[in-house]
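in:
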């Protein structure tokens, strides 16, 4: 076999190996789709949209936030981040977006949503990555690695933001 054929076969094997490695990575590290659900009635004063991706960590964070919010008069809707393009930010008192970095970038739906709603003051973001400090430039986000031991801390950070947005303002309005 000639040297040219050996090089071509070697490059072909390398390309196939890289493609297989990329497929394995995508399959083993990709987020699951989240089925939508709602809690409480739409006719309460406050409403919160949670857009997330499916993973043990994100599911646990969503459960913690939802468990807290169900003790309040709040309508809650949970959707997959792939549906963010359908969201009217003006229809929600608060929007929580939980997403991860895949292949060194955020999901395109999240990036586009945040770009289109850059000036919105009702969006709160929790971004996860392998090293825990990746986030979309210019976005005020809670960041961290998807570690289950961090769930209580991240739930509390989101609850604090939601409380300040939904209830502190309402309390001061009632005192006037």
């Amino acid at each position: 076999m000639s040297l040219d054929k050996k090089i071509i076969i070697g490059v072909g094997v390398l390309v196939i190996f890289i493609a297989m490695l990329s497929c394995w990575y995508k399959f083993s590290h990709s987020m699951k789709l989240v089925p939508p659900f709602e809690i409480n009635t739409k006719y309460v004063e406050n409403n919160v949209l949670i857009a997330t991706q499916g993973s043990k960590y994100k599911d646990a964070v969503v459960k913690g936030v939802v468990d807290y919010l169900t003790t309040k008069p709040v309508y809650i809707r949970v959707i997959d981040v792939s549906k963010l393009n359908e969201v009217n930010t003006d229809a929600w008192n608060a929007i929580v977006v939980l997403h991860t970095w895949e292949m060194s970038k955020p999901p395109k739906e999240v990036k586009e949503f945040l770009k289109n709603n850059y000036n919105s003051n009702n969006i709160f973001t929790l971004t996860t990555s392998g090293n825990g400090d990746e986030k979309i430039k210019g976005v005020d986000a809670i960041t961290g690695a998807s570690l289950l031991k961090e769930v209580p801390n991240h739930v509390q950070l989101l609850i604090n933001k939601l409380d300040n947005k939904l209830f502190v303002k309402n309390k001061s309005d009632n005192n006037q």
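note: The beta strands are 37-39, 46-52, 74-80, 94-100, 123-128, 141-144.
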